[in-house]
Amino acid sequence: MALPQAKQTATEERLASLTMPDAGCTRAAREDALARVLEMGLPGRRDEYWKYTRPDTLISPEAPHAALFLSDEETLFGEIDRLKIVFIDGVFSAEESDDLELEGVNIDRIEDICCKDIHWAKELYGVLEARGQSPVQRPLAALNTAFAGDGVAIHVTGKPSKPISLIYRHASETSDAMLHHIVRVESGAEVTILENGPAASRFNKCMEIDIADNGTLHHVRAQGRDHERRAMTHMFTRLGAVSTYKSFTLTANGVLTRNEQVIELTGDDAVAHVAGACVGDGDFHHDDTVFITHDAVNCESRQVFKKVLRNGATGVFQGKILVKAGAQKTDGYQISQSLLLDDDSQFLAKPELEIYADDVACSHGSTSGAIDETALFYLRSRGVPHKDATNMLTLAFLAEAVDEIEDSALAEEIVTRLEGWLARRS
Amino acid sequence: MAALDQTQVKEGVDQETVDAVREVGTYKYGWDTDIEMEYAPKGVNPDIVRLISEKNEEPEWMTEWRLSAFDRWTKMEEPTWAMVHYPPIDFQDQYYYARPKSMEEKPKSLDEVDPKLLATYEKLGIPLKEQMILAGVEGAEDMPAEGRKVAVDAVFDSVSVGTTFKDELAKHGVIFCSISEAIKDHPELVKKYLGTVVPVSDNYYATLNSAVFSDGSFVYIPPGVRCPMELSTYFRINAENTGQFERTLIIADKGSYVSYLEGCTAPQRDTAQLHAAVVEIIVEEDAEVKYSTVQNWFPGDENGKGGIYNFVTKRADCRGDRSKVMWTQVETGSAVTWKYPSCILRGNESQGEFYSIAITNNYQQADTGTKMVHLGKNTKSRIVSKGISAGKAQNTYRGLVSMHPKAKDSRNYTQCDSLLIGDKCGAHTVPYIEVKNNSSRVEHEATTSKVDDDQLFYCRQRGMDEEEAVALVVNGFCKDVLQALPMEFAMEAQQLVAISLEGSVG
Asked: Rounded distance, CA B325 to CA A38, Å?
């Protein structure tokens, strides 16, 4: 079917500004992805999946200007022993990064594996993204597969002693970065991946994660605080039997953020938890879009998303649990809540269930409102000043999402960040 | 039934028993009335629109209104966003106007009424006293009515065949008649309100309805009047290949109250039939309207053949402060349902409520829910939706709760629960929540589960058979909604819940 004219034009204009990297073994996958982009067209305002978020600035040929955020605070995860992999405006920096050698894991730049004939990454690059295009189209992910300039392939074969930390620095005020990572967690292996930083003025990141039977992956992410940055991220995760995937994202600031999580539970008894805490002030639009497919027996999925909004900030949540026929004994849970600190902010949600199996327990809840006056009164009557009481209640509200992080040291880092954000605003 | 077909006949159960059980679940109202009908030519075009207008003896402005709607309809596209699938509808391959020949002139006495029409109402279970009135007999109103009075407007295919208790209602200033009569007798009211809640070009089916609606009910409750009896409309589709397009307009003036019931059935046929209705309700200051529906159109047979495509637009506009509207629906029929009774809460402190039970079995598909649009301050809404899916059916709740920036201190509570019976069906929830101020509270909860084994076991242990047990558990699941129904409907609905699910347990 021909695309609507406006969509066709926007897609052509965006593609004209891009060049496909000379990418050796990923070439075929990239060309397939480009074909998908041409067929689907880039997202437009009228697309149902973009009902609450305007994609215009994510698809424009040039990245909008974004000032750098300078802070003298300690770097996030600074206290944590980790293996650092640094990207500056979307380009790998060997000088800033640690030595990529670590027991239990092999890390390669996508660019390097392209020279090797036989590499596991070829079996994964673009594969989960392509699977994730149905039943809902995600053209910006296909665009990423086709044109991503850099990224790493992480092959986890054991239990590495420290987390792998991807750090995204923002250096140029007009940078437009696309990164594509692939992660394969082998049977019985376990790894923690950290991500932080604004990355670029406009950042399009795609990560494909394949977790084999009994594998475990923990993911903790903090998106950069540059007020004017834009980010569009996709995480495509496929889980085998008895495997575990737990992901947490903190978003503070940023003019536009859309995080898509596309999770497929393909093996029995798998567990997937995704959580997010976001705090937004002023010109801030944050969109969590989650699509979880249960395609095996006795799996568990859990989505916990909390948003604190003020000064006209907008929070969006689109979450879906799809239980396919035969995925019996599914336990699906989803909660999305917003705390509106003033009258200008808004919360837009579309929490969906689509269920084709009868022996399941699925539920979702969504609430929105101001700080509970009774709780506030209780604290104030015990002598807590208004500001402190508000902050205390706000943190308590976000706690359910932060609690999804299993590692207490990492959770603490996140809480410190949230406290800092609140302190600066009261 | 489908689930039953799949089930292997267990040891000790003979085929006869299986067949008997299958028999019970068949549609009770699937018979048709063999009556001489008068049709407009097949298809829809400006001439047909003019013809319908002419048959109803409408004034020029009404004809123009219809024609402009038709013009817009030709430029619109059929919506595809709902989670329902059906073969493309050929809008030119059906009749848009059909009426019993005997209705050409209104019968004056019982002897003049076509006995077949009479038999139809008798069979539909409408009491004799009412039946006489329904068939349009003048003078029957004077007979003493037993028990609680319910005034009925009966719509048979494209025409209203009679409205009961008209005179008694008139004593209170209440106008209850068919919309075709209202256009003739109360043009000022119709002109003022028609199309103000559901605009002509609101959506594809509403626009088509605006062009070709043939009849429907009209209700006006004057200021300060509490309608002395319940009003109801009974819709019957009888003719083959005929679409029913009825239009209902209810106006509750300041401080008035009315409870309105709607029922519908259709014969069992192999080909699908279209039903595209529009209901508009205007609720002024301090007024209250209760609108209850038991929708039992022919759902198609157990193989998914035939049935009614029920594409309905219903909306209430709470214009005045402290106005209140309550929608209650029990949706058990129709092959495909596409229906979202909505509330526009414009007046300050206005309230909207939506209680729904949607049951789908065999190959039925339902995509139904509500919209609560909060515009006024201190507005409240409550949504309770129970979806039950069995056989190979698909059941979707789709709803919108919108809090506008000016709707300060408003409140919404939504609960939608789905129950699955069998592993071949689907239950889906698609809520949209839009909150644009912080003094309002919005809460949404949804669950999906199967019939609880412990509850079933408990019932079985006390000697119930499996179907009875399931019906009891399901009735318990629907309790919140059943309680919101007027008494007459609640009893009927409770039985319907059981009948609709018969044969769904293997």
From this structure: 49
Asked if the model's pLDDT at residue B1 lies above 50, the reply is no
Q: Is residue B130 pLDDT above 70, yes or no? A: no
Q: What is the pLDDT of residues A249-298, one digit of tens each?
A: 999 989 999 999 999 999 999 999 999 999 999 999 999 999 999 999 99
Is the Cβ of B4 closer than 8 Å to some Cβ of chain A? no
Question: Looking at the structure, do residues B37 and B136 belong to the same domain, yes or no?
Answer: no
Residues B354 and B435 in one domain: yes
Q: Domain range spanning residue B137?
A: 112-143
Structural contact between residues A321 and A364, judged by C-beta atoms closer than 8 angstroms? yes
Q: Cis bond leading into A135, ω under 30°?
A: yes
Mean pLDDT for A300-329 is 96
Q: What is the CA radius of gyration of chain B?
A: 22
Residue B135 has pLDDT above 60, yes or no: no
Provide the pLDDT for residue B303. Answer: 84
Smallest CA–CA distance from A316 into chain B, residue = B434
Q: Are residues B283 and B336 in the same domain?
A: yes
pLDDT tens string B323-335: 999 999 988 888 9
- Which tens digits make up the pLDDT trace of B261-272? 888 777 777 788
Residue type, A256: L
- The DSSP-derived string for B349-381 is T-EEEEEEEEEE-TT-EEEE--EEEE-STT-EE
The CB density around residue A108, as the number of other CB atoms within 10 Å, is 18
Total domains in the fold of chain B: 2
For residues B117 and B74, state if they share a domain.
Answer: no
**B476 found inside a domain:** no
Look at B445 and A363 and tell me if their CB atoms are within 8 Å: yes
Note whether residue B4 is domain-resident.
Answer: no
Residue with tokens 């500056």: A88
Q: Tell me if B439 and A343 make a contact (CB, 8 A cut-off).
A: yes
Same-domain check for residues B197 and B222: yes
Percentage of residues in chain A with pLDDT exceeding 90? 88
Domain boundaries, chain A: 5-303
Q: Rounded to whole angstroms, how far apart are CA atoms A233 and A256?
A: 11
Instruction: Please tell me the distance from the alpha carbon of residue A188 to that of residue A182, in angstroms, as a whole number.
Output: 18
Q: Which of A119-133, A397-411, B6-20, B218-232 has the lowest mean pLDDT?
A: B6-20
Pairing of strands A300-310, A331-340: parallel
**Domain assignment present for B14:** no
Q: Tokens at residue B152, please? A: 């009925």
User: Are residues B125 and B273 located together in one domain of the fold?
Assistant: no
Which residues, 6 or more positions from B224, have their beta carbon under 8 angstroms from its beta carbon?
B254, B255, B256
Say how far apart CA A209 and CA A197 lie, in whole Å: 20
Residue B431 contacts A, CB cutoff 8 Å: yes
pLDDT band at B134 (very low <50, low <70, confident <90, very high): low
Distance, in angstroms, between A374 CA and closest chain B CA? 14
